[in-house]
Amino acid sequence: MPVIAMTQEMASLGKDVALGVCEELGLQQVRHEVGDTVAGKMQVKKSLIRRIREGKASKIEKWSADEKTISIFTADEIYELALKGNVLIRGWGATLLLHPVPHIPCVQVSAPLELRVKRLMERLETDDEALARREIEVDDAARAARMGESFKVEWGDPTLYDLTLNSERIPIPDCVDMVVRLAKSAAFQETPASRRKLADLALQAKARAALRADARTSDVDIVIEVIDGRVNLRGIVANEKERERVHAVITGLPGSSGLDDHLRTMAGGLYRFPSQVKDKG
Fold it and tell me: Rounded to whole angstroms, how far apart are CA atoms 167 and 99?
């Protein structure tokens, strides 16, 4: 069940490449649907999620939908789609979220700024070059900021992708052919190990989303790791009651083979790190 993650610069013709790849491989293309699902989980307008991601939301709007929650629910949806397979996921951080999975090709479509400005002017049917340039600059800045804040990476790093396509020099049909050949290559075929890696990442994202969605644990900030289906919890919770709430939310999640609790409690006072505990012997 092929899965492809793709990102694009505005007006780079990434949409055309994605459509061609989906036709060739019989894949479902998903883009805005991710945001729609996230908006539903957060009970906010779909347009608000898009404005926040595009860097166009006001400060007041950002207060009603914090970006960390958006990131948590987005990751949950991306991994869920990848588990189902037969999909090309365009945007929404999919190339970064899925890059650790060996069988999923991560593709970037780009083009020089001046060409993108020209293409956007044609798309908008305007001769206002300043307007088109401003739209692209705002989008590029928002994309770079999201990648830096959410993934601690730089937007222009070529090692984030398995294939980068310059649509100025490579015709769209050739771009499509290159992506298709990459997806069919031996290096990107699913194996039991790569499937397990994807399942672990999906379960990790599911656990984080479950904690954030439940009013009892929405403010809990702990580290969640999953290895071979086993959920490991690390960090600090307020007390035993909060620990029990975390267990209640995470225990029994689909795909989990067990829970290892390494949480520590503040026990009603300031937490002391091991180095701060005096040797009483």
Answer: 22
Number of separate helices (H) and strands (E) present in the chain: 11, 8
Domain 3-188 superfamily per CATH: P-loop containing nucleotide triphosphate hydrolases (3.40.50.300)
249 has pLDDT over 90: yes
Residues facing 265 on adjacent strands: 237
Pairing of the two strands 3-8 and 106-110: parallel
Contact status, residue 113 vs residue 136, Cβ threshold 8 Å: yes
Q: Are 135 and 50 in contact (CB under 8 A)?
A: no
Neighbours of 259 (CB within 10 A): 16
pTM: 0.91
**Cβ atoms 27, 127 nearer than 8 A:** no
- Residue 54: pLDDT band (50, 70, 90) is confident
CB 238 within 8 A of CB 221: no
CATH tag, 214-275: 3.30.1340
The ranges assigned to domains in the chain are 3-188, 214-275
Among residues 56, 96, 62, the alpha carbon closest in space to that of 79 is found at 96
What is the C-alpha to C-alpha distance for residues 55 and 145, in angstroms, rounded to an integer?
9
